[in-house]
Design a protein that fits this description.
290 residues; mainly beta; 5-stranded antiparallel sheet; globular
């Protein structure tokens, strides 16, 4: 995956499941010119001509299908506490061959549309191509699930489906924040986001006021950063500069990234890092130009 990537804007409509379960949707709503800029892990242009497949005009993560591949939920009613799905190919059959990207064949990101409840998990694939992972959506509301993968012989892509949990929805709000506290760790974010330009970001990890200099590799990196634009959940997953064991990248306390966002707005950022054998997630809120 490239260290710098443009964000993809997307939105979605929801479809309901049986009572007590997730709701799962494969359709998407209209995409405005303001929200169709950029791409997730692919290279999507904002201008298309001719009789191109409409799905090809959507940024990564917005559609459940692209280039003949489909993010398909397995079964009408997902098993409680578990999420199962397949990636079907152009022949309509489940794909069973995927390239390994950062130690995994597929990365699954799930987040509620108010940017709460963030989860980065890794399903296991059965021989028949069915992916399955324990997954609990902790509160009522609308969620988006992103499958990030590269089919062997094909292009890397990010497909998305909508999930929903019935109940009394209470959206969360977040003030601008550059410092996160998680399990006794303090993570500080330095740098800013400028629309249309590459922005260097540095995350510094400490514990009890002491810099952490022995971060542990997690998925072949010292950190993974996901950025989501508030409102439409424009999506970017980037990896840091350098790699563990390359002889030049220190194991903390700083983890450096470069990200490019396509438009002004407020973004929620999620840093996954590993220390003491445990993966933790630090959350931040930034507004472009601040």
């Amino acid at each position: 995956m490239n260290t710098t990537a443009r964000l993809a804007a997307f939105g979605g409509a929801l479809a309901l499941l049986a009572a007590g379960g997730f709701a799962v949707g494969n359709t998407v709503g209209p995409v405005s010119a303001a929200t169709s800029t950029g791409a997730g892990h692919g290279d999507m242009s904002g201008e298309h001509a001719g009789m191109a497949d409409p799905a090809d005009e959507l940024p990564g993560g917005l559609a459940s299908s692209k280039d003949g591949y489909t993010f398909a939920v397995a079964g009408a009613t997902p098993e409680p506490g578990r999420f199962s799905f397949t990636i079907t190919g152009p022949d309509g059959k489940p794909v069973t061959a995927f390239d390994v990207e950062h130690e995994k064949q597929l990365h699954l990101i799930v987040v509620r549309r108010d940017t709460s409840g963030f989860q980065h998990v890794h399903p296991e694939m059965a021989p028949d191509g069915t992916w399955s992972v324990p997954l609990t959506l902790p509160a009522a509301g609308s969620y988006r699930a992103f499958a990030d993968f590269a089919p062997t012989g094909g292009k890397a892509m990010t497909l998305g489906v909508d999930l929903s949990v019935a109940g009394n929805y209470r959206p969360a709000t977040y003030a601008t924040s550059r410092t996160a506290q998680v399990d006794g760790y303090t993570v500080r974010l330095d740098g800013g986001l400028t629309a249309g330009k590459t922005s260097p970001l540095t995350l510094t990890v400490s514990r009890g006021g002491i810099p952490v200099t022995d971060l542990q590799p997690y998925l072949a990196a010292y950190g993974h950063l996901v950025a989501l634009r508030e409102g439409d959940l424009a999506y970017l997953h980037v990896h840091p500069d350098g790699a563990p064991g390359d002889g030049k990248t220190p194991a903390g306390p700083q983890v450096k990234f470069a990200a490019e966002v396509p438009s002004a707005g407020t973004y929620r950022l999620f840093l996954d890092f590993r220390h003491g054998g445990v993966v933790r997630t630090a959350e931040f809120t930034l507004t472009t130009g601040h």
